[in-house]
Design a protein that fits this description.
The protein is α+β, with helices and mostly antiparallel strands. About 50% of the residues lie in helices and about 10% in strands. It has 11 helices and 7 strands. It comes from Rivihabitans pingtungensis.
Length: about 325
């Protein structure tokens, strides 16, 4: 009879046993978390070897990388018989914006003004669905059928993101607005706006599931602090942690604390992710030092900024 799996082993095994893996999404997480700090490029063969222990086969990774290239996340650069893949300009912008949210030590302060994007005129069919999807990915909620709302996004960046997503032809149909406070007591409250635009119950449930999945992992890391986790497992767990957390943040408008319940599970999820990440970082970076390669055989050093992600954290928990 085999020994019972530890929480860390269980998380890795759960991923391997998935019936269908969205490899492209995982590769996006790898580029954002591990490749960007080392110059934003990697040899395809090195990427394949790094992900092989998660039982992602070479064909799936190659197909996913080619698709990301077609979607302008990545671009290729041959070097002899090998090929480096690097972030395309649109991909760099997307990753920079995502990193600002993922690795923040705390949620941003709110200036108590709402950002609105109004759809002017009729827009139906595929273009409308593409617009809704693109803005939902940026954390916008909807008020009615033609108004998208966000508490803090930079509207210029939001429009730049639509251009990067290939929706630049729709900008002439969109009106950006910033809503100021009103002195009238009959105006809708900020909480009314939140409940009309977002389903916080669903988001809270997803955060609670994340905490339930990773709390045993943190307990193991704390208990075994004197016995180092092997470098490969540290790297793989780090990637899955950030991958799971990034997918949560894609659905999160990052509402200010004053608009959230006092026991909001997103706060616990951020602190949990933060501590696990810091505990995994040294061993996972040693693994990358050994196995990360460019097409020319070189291994670029990681930027020191990788150690500043999430801010400082108490190693004793």
């Amino acid at each position: 009879m085999s020994a019972e799996l530890t929480p860390i082993q269980q998380r890795l095994e759960d991923f391997r046993q998935q019936g269908r893996v969205q490899a492209g999404s995982l590769i996006v997480s790898v580029f954002g978390d591990a490749v960007m700090p080392r110059g934003s490029r990697i040899w395809l063969g090195s990427l394949i070897r790094l992900l092989e222990p998660l039982e992602l086969n070479e064909r799936l990774i190659r197909t996913s990388v080619f698709r990301l290239t077609k979607e302008e996340w990545l671009c290729s650069e041959p070097a002899g018989r090998r090929t480096d893949y690097l972030l395309a300009p649109a991909g760099q912008r997307r990753f920079a914006e995502a990193s600002r949210h993922i690795y923040a030590a705390r949620a941003p302060q709110w200036d108590r003004r709402w950002r609105l994007i109004m759809l002017v005129g009729e827009l139906a069919g595929k273009p409308r669905e593409q617009l809704k999807r693109a803005l939902f990915w940026q954390g916008f909620g909807m008020l009615g059928s033609d108004c998208f709302v966000h508490p803090s996004v930079d509207l210029t960046n939001a429009f730049d993101a639509l251009i990067a997503d290939g929706l630049g032809e729709l900008l002439g149909r969109l009106k950006p607005l910033i809503a100021a406070d009103t002195p009238y007591g009959s105006a809708a409250s900020d909480l009314d706006m939140v409940h009309a635009a977002w389903n916080l119950n669903d988001l809270a449930a997803m955060y609670a599931s994340f905490v339930q999945r990773y709390q045993p992992v943190l307990a193991q890391l704390r208990a075994d602090s004197e016995h180092a986790l092997d470098e490969e497992s540290a790297f793989l767990l780090r990637i899955l942690l950030i991958h799971d957390y990034r997918r949560l943040l894609l659905r999160d408008p990052e509402l200010p604390d004053v608009l959230l319940p006092g026991d909001w599970p997103g706060h616990q999820a951020r602190q949990l992710c933060r501590e696990i990440y810091h505990r995994l970082l040294p061993a996972s970076e040693r693994h990358l030092d050994r196995h990360f390669q460019l097409a020319n055989g070189q291994t670029p050093e990681a930027s020191p900024t990788v150690y500043a992600r999430f801010g400082e954290v108490d190693p004793l928990g």
